[in-house]
């Protein structure tokens, strides 16, 4: 399996994730990239240091996300939901490969199906109201109608989202070594769960 980790600049979280998974996973290839990454920069000094503390080394040069990398990957694991949303907007052809690392290992498929169903129903209802009322109501009246008729749907979505775990990996950028260690350990815990999940699928 080809796995791609994605963060913002490809200097902190995604290269740490790449190094950690490479040290534990022999059944495929692992790469990392950044949505706003330059090309050929080094890993952040603190990321390199906290990896060395656990005897890991990575020969890393930053690279931006592109079609070729997304095509190559079987699974694309982002560090935050915002990274995932950005990829889905910029590269919609690969949306079925996008997950945050934490959602992929912590949330079962049924829960995600339920949330997607709620979103779909919300969008369908919203579109129907807009189509039926756009010509007959002012913008203000339409806004009031949408808020009133979609209130229960919004509440259901919020309740479902609040029941799910936090799906973002902490960004240590600009922090001290302690913060980088915490992010490294957070990545390590969830990568262990990733390996367990992949082994269960084999």
UniProtKB/TrEMBL annotation:
<dbReference type="GO" id="GO:0004725">
    <property type="term" value="F:protein tyrosine phosphatase activity"/>
</dbReference>
<dbReference type="InterPro" id="IPR023485">
    <property type="entry name" value="Ptyr_pPase"/>
</dbReference>
<dbReference type="InterPro" id="IPR017867">
    <property type="entry name" value="Tyr_phospatase_low_mol_wt"/>
</dbReference>
<dbReference type="Pfam" id="PF01451">
    <property type="entry name" value="LMWPc"/>
</dbReference>
<dbReference type="InterPro" id="IPR050438">
    <property type="entry name" value="LMW_PTPase"/>
</dbReference>
<dbReference type="InterPro" id="IPR036196">
    <property type="entry name" value="Ptyr_pPase_sf"/>
</dbReference>
<feature type="active site" description="Nucleophile">
    <location>
        <position position="13"/>
    </location>
</feature>
<feature type="active site" description="Nucleophile">
    <location>
        <position position="7"/>
    </location>
</feature>
<protein>
    <submittedName>
        <fullName>Low molecular weight protein arginine phosphatase</fullName>
    </submittedName>
</protein>
<comment type="similarity">
    <text>Belongs to the low molecular weight phosphotyrosine protein phosphatase family.</text>
</comment>
<keyword id="KW-0904">Protein phosphatase</keyword>
<feature type="domain" description="Phosphotyrosine protein phosphatase I">
    <location>
        <begin position="1"/>
        <end position="197"/>
    </location>
</feature>
<keyword id="KW-0378">Hydrolase</keyword>
């Amino acid at each position: 399996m080809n796995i791609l980790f994605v963060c913002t600049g490809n200097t902190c979280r995604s290269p740490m994730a790449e190094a950690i998974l490479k040290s534990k996973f022999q059944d495929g290839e692992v790469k990392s990239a950044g949505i706003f990454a330059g090309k050929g920069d080094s890993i952040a000094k603190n990321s390199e240091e906290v990896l060395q503390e656990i005897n890991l080394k990575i020969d890393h040069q930053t690279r931006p996300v592109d079609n070729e990398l997304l095509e190559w990957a079987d699974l694309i694991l982002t560090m935050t939901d915002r990274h995932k949303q950005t990829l889905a907007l910029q590269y919609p052809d690969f949306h079925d490969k996008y997950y945050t690392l934490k959602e992929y290992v912590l949330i079962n498929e049924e829960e995600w199906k339920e949330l997607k169903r709620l979103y779909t129903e919300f969008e369908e209802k919203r579109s129907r109201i807009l189509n039926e009322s756009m010509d007959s109501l002012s913008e203000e009246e339409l806004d009031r109608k949408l808020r009133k008729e979609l209130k229960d749907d919004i509440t259901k979505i919020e309740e479902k989202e609040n029941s799910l775990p936090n799906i973002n990996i902490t960004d240590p950028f600009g922090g001290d070594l302690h913060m980088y260690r915490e992010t490294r350990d957070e990545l390590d815990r969830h990568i262990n769960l990733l390996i367990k999940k992949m082994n269960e699928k084999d």
